[in-house]
Amino acid sequence: MFRRSEQDKRPNVQIFVDGVAVAARQGDTVSAALLASGRDVRRSTAVSGAPRLPYCMMGVCFDCLVTIDGVGNRQGCLVPVADGMQVEIQKGKREIGK
Amino acid sequence: MTVAPKREAYDVVVIGAGPAGLAAAATSAEAGLSTLLLDENIGPGGQVFRAIASTPVTERNQLGADYWAGADLVQALRASSAEVIHRATVWSLDRNLEIAVSIGGASAFVKAQRVILATGALERPFPIPGWTLPGVMTAGAAQTVLKSSALVPDGRTVIAGQGPLLWLLAAQILRLGGRIDRILDTTERGNYFAALPHAFGFLTSPYFAKGLSMMREVKAKVQVVSGVTELSACGEGQLASVSYVAGGKRETIPADLLLLHQGVVPNVNLAMAAGVEHRWDELQLCWSPVLDANGASSVAGIAIAGDGAGIGGANAAVVRGRIAARAAVEALAPAAAATLTSMAALRADLARAERGRVFLDTLFRPAQQFRIPTGDTIVCRCEEVTAKDVLDSVAIGATGPNQLKAYRRTGMGPCQGRLCGLTVTELMAQARGKTPQEIGYYRLRAPVKPITLAELAAVPKSEADVKAVVRG
Amino acid sequence: MSKAFSSEVDAGSRKENASKQKSEYDVAVVGGGLLGSAIAWGLGRLGKRVAVLDEGDITKRASRANFALVWVQSKGLGMPAYTVWTVQASQAWGRLASELKQQTGLDVSLQQNGGFHLTLGEDEFGQRAELVKRMHNQVGAADYKMEMLSASEVKKSLPLIGPEVSGGSYCPLDGHVNSLRTFRAFHTGFIAFGIDYFPERPVSAISKSGGEFRLTTPKGELGAAKIVLAAGNANQTLAPMVGLYAPMGPTRGQIVVTERTMPFLPHPLTTIRQTDEGTVMIGDSKEDELDDRALKHSISAVMTDRAQRMFPHLSRLNVVRSWAGIRVMPQDGFPIYDQSETHPGAFVACCHSGVTLASNHAFEIARMVAQGALEPELVGAFSASRFGGAGAANNSGY
């Protein structure tokens, strides 16, 4: 869907998505990094399990919900990536204690 | 690193670091008032100047001069004494001007003498069949990832809708070498005639020349289909194609990315939860706060500036921010007001900035079929409630959005109606033969954005509070 | 669809105006909340011609602001008849749920597998044990097996409780339901029974002439042979219009609601329940305050703090909204069911536990209203005569 412009000279940041290393750039939000990764990062809703991807990228639609470093239902479009960050794609309802 | 506000009380707290907030905070601070600027995002700029201080898209002609004008605003803010906290989410504002803000997972409370809400706008919902499919996003979303991460579409991409932002986005994508397969223009033909009486204001405004050249730039490279009257996104679990009707003919084209845009509307949640009175604006088809000429709302001490006060664009937002800040200075430190631009000059600036607005609002008034869906089209994305569900609720007696909420959970999700509220109001108005003003809106309350249980639990409590809860 | 109103109706409304007709309705129910709806539904079920008059979208509705418990334990301290009435309602709820399901297709997710009131620390445990003892010792007490359990006993049913939980009281008859879906089911059932629902028609005056009651609303008058006042706290103002008395003492309660999470709470508590949707509701406060728009975050803090001490893993869950509701609360906490002597055919019904008692309202109260008389053996204890004479309304804001 998206590719990175050659103009982007920002340093790399390594995050993990469901355990797999993914290259991001410093200053990316988690959602931007996921969209740029080329991976299937669709979540599924807590209501019906319908697949979703981010819609607004500005913090109002809540379709970018993702688990970051063990904490669920974070808005990925508002969180900047950091080295070693563990991102998990959410399927359905939030788990106990996560 | 968690930053907490340095004080417990400020003269002025500004919420939102878009053009209005940047201008308001700088003005207030320059006049010597203790000023706090809170913003949810990583850096300043709001939406229109997104990533202005950090964008990897450094070639200036790609994002354009209008974008880079935002850099001056940020510079002025940073040169001022205003305290600025980013990644700070305000979740409560009440009539006593007490603000609850979440920073790094902990909540802080500050009190203000004056609050200037500059929370801006969000994209108008575009509830077409399939709009919840992965691969369907707003034009604003594409612009955000372009500005902040230099991402451009590289698959089969369709842009659909209407309004100046659509053309700006298309131009920026093309300048960065991104791919656009087709642009579907949903501007209603009748609107051209309706807008004609306001054309002079537009022709003599800054919008006209820029707008025209941008459209030419885009049309030279992309197929544009005008007069689109029907639109839907199709696919199983993912967007696969876009289907549309134009000139009575139906076409379907394969697509990986569909970018929707039909204007922006005020982001009313914090203002409404604070008790600010709003009314339905029939021209802009949205809820706007009731304000006086200084931006003062129905709640004493709360002013609203920028697109949250009514859609007016970036230049108008800057001036409104300055007006609201100047009004605060006049109230709290009148002697200092003499050092600021006069109110008369600011009002003249505003009139200039608002030239052409009525023309744009009239021309780009979104068509009813794109605002009011039917059948199985989803209205409430969070709770997955369809248009038919809403009509069924009207049939059993729901008279407005709040009873609808009880029956179907619309508005109960985390977005608190941001993506469904306007649709619900208009759909119910149509079904009941009433005006949107009569139908009303969701009753909003804090927290206007989710906070963790632990964070809420850590809020200071008194013995009286405990007694009210622990009752054996 | 009946056409009942005798003056102009708003343009564009689907219900058309028609000429005056005498006693078009057997019963007019004033108030379309859970209580009024249950009674109206029950009357329609008996084949009566019913009209329901209700307020509009913005109004203080306990039906939209309740904790959805179908609760027995600790009910009736000071009035054993209330305990009996409550146990009966709890036993009849299953029948209500299945009839609603059959009629409307809606499953109200009734769950009656027992409920808890948990205590934190030894002092609270002691206080609760005292209450349980007092209830057991009441003359005429029905035995509904409310008992105190230790923390380790509670843990067998609720494995995720935290170390501060000292135990609590348990009753096997307790349960909960999706009260909003119940509300929707009643209103859906209205269509099937041919009950006319008229929103945006608050009643400002009631008169009786020529054997029928006339109800005055902003959109005209409506006539009915009998009326049931089921307007919650507003009954206090309406009741005297027909020689009845309904003193109310409303209080405000706040609730916090979280996002959906995987099922973790198999039994409802008095202060925490997990809905069939997966969301967690946390309550509740009792404040002398009648503004349901304002919220005190410090009170939400107490509630959420207790919740996370009871279930530590809740602490990371997001609160997505909070709201306040005004309780419908008769002055002494017990229901008021009465029929007028000066205006025969006028009934008043109000209570706090509109969810728990919905089955009794739908089956018993409706039956009695249809037959024309409340039965003293069943509901005599709830007559307002217990307040000692129809005095002036107390100053509760209604």
Structure commentary:
The complex is a heterotrimer of chains A (98), B (472) and C (398). Chain A has one helix at 30-36, and strands at 2-4, 12-17, 20-25, 43-44, 51-52, 65-68, 71-75, 86-88. Chain A has 98 residues and is mainly beta. In chain A, the strands form two sheets. In chain A, strands 3-2-8-6-7 form a five-stranded mixed β-sheet, with helices on one face. The N and C termini of chain A lie far apart (30 Å). The mean pLDDT of chain A is 96. Chain B has three domains: 9-122 and 265-340, FAD/NAD(P)-binding domain (3-Layer(bba) Sandwich); 125-262, FAD/NAD(P)-binding domain; 372-439, BFD-like [2Fe-2S]-binding domain (Arc Repressor Mutant, subunit A, Orthogonal Bundle). The two termini of chain B are 41 Å apart. Chain B is built from 20 helices and 23 strands. Chain C is 28% helix and 22% strand. In chain C, the strands form four sheets. In chain C, strands 1, 2, 8, 9, 10, 11, 16 and 17 form an eight-stranded mixed β-sheet that branches. Chain C has three domains: 1-9 and 22-112 and 175-247 and 333-398, 3-Layer(bba) Sandwich (FAD/NAD(P)-binding domain); 115-151 and 166-172, no CATH class; 251-326, 2-Layer Sandwich (D-Amino Acid Oxidase, Chain A, domain 2), CATH 3.30.9. Chain C is of the alpha+beta class and 398 residues long. Chain C is built from nine helices and 17 strands. In chain C, helix 1 runs parallel beside helix 5 and helix 2 (80-104) packs across helix 8. The chains are: A mainly beta (98), B alpha/beta (472), C alpha+beta (398). Chains in contact: A-B, A-C, B-C. Chains B and C meet through helix 16, strand 23, helix 19 and helix 20 of B and helix 3, helix 5, strand 12, helix 7 and strand 15 of C. Strand 23 (451-452) of chain B pairs antiparallel with strand 15 (318-326) of chain C.
